[in-house]
Design brief:
- By secondary structure, this protein is α/β, with parallel strands linked by helices.
- Helix content is 26%, strand content 14%.
- The chain folds into 3 domains: 371 residues, Glycosidases (TIM Barrel, Alpha-Beta Barrel), CATH 3.20.20.80; 55 residues; 57 residues, Sandwich (Immunoglobulin-like), CATH 2.60.40.
- The strands form 4 sheets. It has an 8-stranded parallel beta sheet with strand order 11-10-9-5-2-1-13-12.
- The longest helix is centred in the C-terminal third of the chain and has 17 residues.
- The structure holds alpha-D-glucopyranose (GLC).
- The site of alpha-D-glucopyranose has 9 residues, from loops.
- Alpha-D-glucopyranose binds next to loops.
């Protein structure tokens, strides 16, 4: 299997500072047994594809035992692979085989909550009010004369209530769905268990952990009402459940464990305040966190430049590398987002039937890929991004995402970016989400031999990024450019130019054109919505 040159970065201890990390959503990646659900056998069979694509690591969204009330983010047992995906033995083989190809593995840990089918929660329900089992969660009596009202007013991250009443009358807290009861992080057993889970996976050769909802774990023990204030961080004030200071102590203890194994963390930290965000990235805390400001940024040169500058400025004081992310399993696929009038991303703005120009979106997404891959830091590629997949319209009667149902049907939910990948023109057999008929044109086998395809563009870009030492970590310097054009230099004479203005622009002087997201025009100018990599 090891026909591919191992990346130079794979041997370096600081690989994560410049890594290209591919996000695998196992349910939809590749189906090894033909039952319509992706699995580990499918991933193992596609490792050569991933090696050829040129990624340094794979981040797997949760692959553990789960009733899938929230796509696996409702974990029933961290030490068991869901049988729909395979076995622990297969996971160990997958980690080893990927390592053999120079590809590291990152697993997803969801510390804020567990599944309501987790043994702890079942025991808590059985044990009743006041029991030590209930102390692992946030159980409270209700308000009102008979305790018939919820004990608090926090809104769910998925719309709707955060409290559910159990048959004995008590209520429990869940920031997400009722099937995801929140753990009580003030309880030492909760901390101990997660430290053991980290060790369990590090001992199996995992090189990193993605921390789900990393800024939500700690709660004010009084669970005070928001009383009309927004469920967002309150600048300058302590919020009852977002970004609380207690979190830093938790992550310091996690860091000590990761350091024993030389493993790394990437936190899912959505925080508007960049100083607060950077606190998670201090040298004894998390190595990296996802850059959601860039992911949400509209296709606009000035806005992107500001986002890039702010990102680099906020990371610099703590010495952490930036990450660059265009999409993931929670947000609208890039090709679709950039083909709309509003090219930013906002959960609250998602509705059915938004007009989309896919040709325009594809052109911009290809340019955005070259922009992103040229920036200093680590970069994430979400499965199917390299195929230029658009968001799929999932028929109403097939939607599974709780975000859709909890919004009362207004929000289409996140299934549109989770549809199984088209490996060939032939669709999956009984896929858990239907693949649109026109997706045959995006098939990976077809794109693999097409020099103009988005897959070819990603392969070339990732290959160049790995071979040319000037990309990845290191400095970046803005170059003078016309309005609407982003131009910056990286070490070793590498230059990236992205034209977001309305007409073609001349390129700066260069010795060679390494890669372009679309051809130059007949006059040798860089057309609108096109990016190039140059050597100067
Ligand atoms: C994170 C995940 C998302 C999940 C939520 C609850 O935001 O990315 O998919 O629904 O946490 O665990």
């Amino acid at each position: 299997m090891a026909d591919f040159p191992l990346p130079a970065a794979a041997s370096a201890a600081d690989w994560w500072r410049s890594a290209a990390i591919y996000q695998v959503y196992p349910r939809s990646f590749a189906d090894g047994d033909g039952d319509g659900t992706g699995d580990l056998a499918g991933v193992r069979a596609k490792l050569p594809y991933l090696a050829e694509l040129g990624v340094d690591a794979l981040w797997f969204t949760p692959w553990y035992l789960s009733p899938l009330a929230d796509g696996g983010y409702d974990v029933a047992d961290y030490r068991t692979i869901d049988p729909a995906f395979g076995t622990l033995d297969e996971a160990e083989k997958l980690i080893a085989e990927a390592t053999g190809l120079g590809i590291r593995t990152i697993v997803d840990i969801v510390p804020n909550h567990v599944s309501d089918q987790h043994v702890w929660f079942r025991a808590a329900l059985a044990a009743g009010p006041g029991s030590p089992e209930r102390a692992l969660f946030h159980f409270r009596p209700g308000r009102g004369e008979h305790g018939e009202l919820p004990p608090g007013d926090w809104p769910s991250q998925f719309a709707g209530a955060t409290w559910t009443q159990v048959p004995d009358g008590e209520w429990y807290l869940h920031l997400f769905t009722p099937e995801q009861p929140d753990l009580n992080w003030a309880h030492p057993a909760v901390r101990r268990e997660h430290e053991e889970v980290l060790r369990f996976w590090f001992e199996r050769g995992v090189a990193g952990v993605r921390i789900d909802s990393a800024a939500l774990l700690a709660k004010d023990p009084a669970l005070p009402d928001l009383a009309g204030r927004p469920g967002e961080p309150w600048p300058g004030e302590v919020h009852p459940y977002i970004d609380r200071d207690e979190l830093h102590d938790i992550y310091r203890s996690w860091r000590a464990i990761a350091d024993e194994f030389g493993a790394i963390f990437v936190g899912e930290v959505w925080l508007p305040d960049s100083e607060r965000f950077a606190r998670y990235l201090r040298p004894d805390e998390l190595h990296t966190a996802f850059n959601f400001s860039f992911l949400s940024c509209p296709w606009d040169a000035a806005r992107l430049r500001t986002s890039i500058e702010e990102t680099l400025a906020e990371h610099a004081p703590v010495g952490a590398p930036a990450t660059w992310v265009l999409c993931n399993h929670d947000v609208t696929r890039t090709v679709t987002r950039y083909g709309r009038q509003d090219t930013g991303f906002d959960f609250a703005a998602k509705v059915f039937g938004t007009p989309t120009d896919l040709a325009l979106g594809t052109r911009r997404a290809r340019a955005a890929a070259l922009l992103t891959l040229a920036l200093p830091g680590a970069v994430y590629v979400y499965q199917g991004e390299e195929l230029g997949l658009p968001e799929a319209d999932v028929p109403l009667d097939r939607i599974q995402d709780p975000m859709h149902f909890r919004s009362g049907g207004r929000d289409p939910g996140r299934d549109g970016c989770r549809v199984p990948l088209p490996w060939s023109a032939e669709p999956w057999r009984n896929p858990w989400l239907p693949q649109p008929a026109h997706w045959a044109t995006y098939a990976a086998d077809r794109q693999a031999t097409d020099p103009e395809s988005t897959l070819t563009l990603y392969r070339r870009a990732l290959g160049l990024r790995r071979a040319a030492r000037g990309f990845g970590t290191g400095s970046m310097e803005w170059l003078p450019a016309p309005d609407g054009v982003l131009a910056f230099a990286r070490p070793d004479g590498l230059v990236c130019v992205v034209n977001l203005s309305e007409g073609p622009v001349p390129l700066p002087g260069h010795t060679s054109l390494l890669l372009s997201s679309a051809p130059l025009d007949d006059a040798g100018l860089l057309p609108q919505d096109t990016a190039v990599w140059l050597r100067t």
